[in-house]
Amino acid sequence: MDTPRGPGRATWVLAGSLLAAALALPAESRNLGQLPAGQVPLQHPLGPQPLRDPHTVPGAGLERTAQDLPLGIWPSVENSHITTPEEAPFGMKFSKEIEVFNPPLASSASSGPWVHSVFAFTHSWPRKTLFKRDSAVTHRLYGDISRDFQGTSENGVIFQKCAVVSVQSEWPLAHVRLFVNNTRTPTAANLSDLFLLDNITGLMIRESAGNQTSRGFQAFRKKFLQVGDSFSVSYTASLEARDVGSGDILLLPAQLSFQSSSPNRTQLKAPFTITAEEKITVLPNHGLHAAGFCVAFILSLVLTWAVLFFMVRYQCVKGSSLTRHQVQHHENKLEHSQFTSADGVNEDLALNDQMIDILSSEDPGSMLQALEELEIATLNRADSDLEACRTQISKDIIALLLKNLTSSGQLSPQVERRMGAVFKKQFLLLEKEIQEEYDRKMVALTAECDLETRKKTESQYQREMAAMEEAEEVLKRVSERSAIECSSLLRTLHGLEQEHLRRSLALQQEEDLAKAHRQLAIFQRNELHNIFFTQIKSAIFKGELKPEAAKMLLQDYSKIQESVEELMDFFQASKRYHLSKRFGHREYLVQNIQSSETRMQGLLSTASAQLTLLIQKHERAGYLDEDQMQVLLERAQTEVFSIKQKLDNDLKQEKKKLHQKLIIKRRREMLQKHKEQRREQLSIAEASGAAEDAGQYLGQWRGLMAEHSAALEELQERLDQAALDELRALTLSLSEKATEELRRLQNLGMTQELLKRGVPWLFLQQILEEHSRDLAARAERLEGEERDRGQEGVQSVRQRLKDDALEASTEEQAELRHWERLIFTKLCSSAFSLSEEELLGMRQEVQGCFAQMDRSLALPKIRARVLLQRFQTAWREAEFLKLDQAMAAPELQPQSKARKPRSKSRSKIDLLKKCTEDKIQLFKEQAPEDLVEKVRGELLRERVQQLEAQEGLFAESLVSLQFQKAARMARTLWAYTALLSIQDLLLEELNSSETLTKSACMQILESHSPELQELERKLEDQLAHQEAAQLQQALDSWQQWAGEGPALLQEPEETDSERHVSAVLQRALSKGQKLLEHHQQSLREEQEDSVVLEDLLENMETDTFVTLYGQELRLASYLSKLTMLPGGTLRRLLTVALPAASQAELLAVLDSVGQKHQDHSVENDGSRVQADLGRRGILKKTCPPLRERVIFSGKGSWPHLSLESTDELTPVPIVGAEAVDLLNTGEKLFIFRNPKEPEISLHVPPRKKKKNFLNAKKAAWALGMN
Questions:
Q1: Listing from the earlier edge strand, what are the strands of the sheet with 217-225?
Q2: Over the chain, what is the mean pLDDT?
Q3: If 49 and its partner were Cys, which of 106, 125, 309, 1115 is the partner (CB 3.0–4.6 Å)?
């Protein structure tokens, strides 16, 4: 206990006292529940405990490791800890640690006047924050070690390292005990050749029976330990304060290896940790505290006011300019947010850091798996970057088109600004919608995956329980040892099945997420097109944009979108190639470092085995007795273990330092490169406003992205190679150093020990020379194997680059788009008639189809992994089924004649064990190689199906539209024919009832004939006018093409007449493709004009039929008035004439007939116009709207009706004596008349009509349909 100091020394701790006052309460709060000072017994928990993290301790210093002391990093100790701090005289403490584990003592080595150093032997499990989690390392001393446990093995052997701390002396003393207990368990066995190695680095051993080495280890050996027995080793050790600083941690594990019933040796570890703590006791002076507080308060107040004054003044000066700057660049910030986002750069840097983690990993076996996961994450990130680039280019293209339209005078600047603002608003709303939809999809997918995982896990658990119950029935009749072995095999098999299930579920979830990302990307692309087309329609409707200008704008947009898709195909192919090259190179680097690791372990194993072999050869030669051999073997094994421990520890520490160094270097260079490329991308995006055309803008993007990809990949490859070189150099230097130490131990240390025991020098020299040659040969063989693996890695990288070649991928995608373009063009040209609005919708749909013809980067890779996993599962299940069938019918299996007959239960347990072992082996075996080709074929088939589905959907929509038009006209003709039938029946009725004479009927028909003739004349004039206009347009287009076509070949000719012909031919060949494209474009425009004209003609004919229907409706109304036909009878007639009409349609016709009947006698010009409008409404009621109709192609051309008066009325069947089948429905209507009765019928003689290309086209189409 220190005594209080005088006031003269208080000035040294003025600031420290303020800090101590703030920390005094937490320090005192930890004094509860402490034991009195003295010896503190530490408990002995059974079994291994979870590892802790010492770096989470506040105030912890540097960890004492093998770089400082010759020991290894081991997991933490399995002992309890007790908190016993020392009370301070004035109740104030300052502790650098969270816990104090044993009472402190006064020490002359204290760092200050009120500082004491305290050391405690601590236990790991009560506090999670005190110890670092380190992976256990298995060291093969000699032979093979079958299992590596920590604390307790599976056969019931318990190994612990415990301590009791005594603080009564000047230095804390620890009474350490190593305890081995071979408990009685069903799997217990006698142990032999027990070798115990204890790490005592940094401790001063006072009383110990072990053999100490110069490297901080002591060894103990026991030849035999029966089941149920135990033995322990005790010794006393101390630790001086001046050797360890506060917060340092000493990891001193112990290791036990022994031989049991298994053929290989088993190794156990008992972790043990020492934590040094420092406690400061402060004796405060209250007067000085008060003075110091006042001075500090005044100074802090003055500084605070000064800082606030300057901050306010600085903000006032720069506030206005900053606001203007933010307003000026707000729109640009929104536009280019995809490129300026810091999150994307940070994510890219984090992905690149993972490569260093993989290369510096301590588990070489998991490197390739980690690299594959990194590749998938990188591909997903690349997809996001490309999608952001596509969106930005599309926005810039729209702005560029509007600017060009304004510069040509077809759009006013005010409208351009308004449309630009609307586009930006719509784009922001779309981004918000995409984000919300993404969040919803992620929540839904997560819930769905959790549910699927729960179901499959429960199903797997039920199968395992059923298998265990079935096995238990068999195991009841066998020995306990066989039952335990079989149960262990079943548990291993079930563990492998669970791991396989987790892998499958993880891959399926990864595929679902990738598909969701793809769907959102496609949705965003289609919505961008939809926004553009919708705004153009709105501008046309408002009159802000002329239809001709809108048509040219849409044509330009379609052409530019084709160029954008080609550009994105290039970006995607380039990205795929560079990423394939990057990860192929990284896979080669991982294989290289694995080869170096294998070479290092091989040399160390050979050098350590030679030590054992050297001693055994002398024992077999008779120069050493058994006791001498055991002593030398024990010492050799101790030294070998020490060297390997030091190597592992040095590797871990040096890799940790190098890892941090490489990460900092990589981040610095990558961040600088990203900043440079981001500035260039922003400059390109901002320069889009100054670009003259879209082609120039897209060309700038193409060159920039190609340059950026090449530069970035070059930097990545250089950094990866540099990291590998440094890590490999570090590993090789340390391993060579360890190998040299083993050789020195063999040539010097062990040689001296053997010579001391009288071994002949010549015999020893001969063995050493032989070992030297063997080691050199082994090193050369390992180098050769490493070179061979390196060559295989190079070939693998070349094959990978060949599969993902940039030119081949780009050409394949270009050919695919060309083929799909031909298909869509052919489908569009097959349309008979389309309006301008429908044609615009077709273009938009085509753009949507082309927008999803690309291949994403990540989804095919993920889908391939899922398919491969699925095929492997199917193959494995088929093999399992064969094994189960063989087990169920063992009599069918061939048996050896020499096999002795065994009991039935013994045979069953052997079959069960053999079947289980075979299933376990199937999980370890590689699946057949043909599964990879099967996966490729399945991916190709799925892509073909996807493209065919797009074609089918587009064709279906197009056919549906045509069927709607045909169905509309067929219903119109049907209604008109039914009306004529009713007129015929009414005239017959009037004639038969002698209400009207034949002359009166003829007079009625003659009064109706001029209206029909006038209507026909108007229709003929309109058709002729439209045909002439189209013919003139086609002639102008042909003249334009004829003038522009040869002009493409007009170039300055060479003066040399001998080369004139060859020059012309060369120019013709070079311009042939351009001429062909120009001609195809002209042909497409002609086809579009043709279908639009056909739709216009159809509308004219429809309007004519509407007028004709109204006239016939008036006549039918008048005739029904004359016949005094009841409403019910008329309704029945309509039902017979229109059997497929709905009730609402029949009622509409009846109302129209009644209305005409009332208005016929007082009809004038005004009422006629009103009646015409009503007739149009009636016809539209019988014909559904355009968007609700279904497509059907009618037969033949529409009839041109004429009505001519003749002297004699020629009977013409109204619905005919023949059956009429409308719309191919199969329904036929038959009307039978009495031939003796007089007939009054309309005479509609055939009339020659001028043929044109539309009627010829209709006729040809009708013949094709027939």
A1: 145-150, 265-270, 254-259, 191-199, 217-225, 211-212
A2: 73
A3: 125
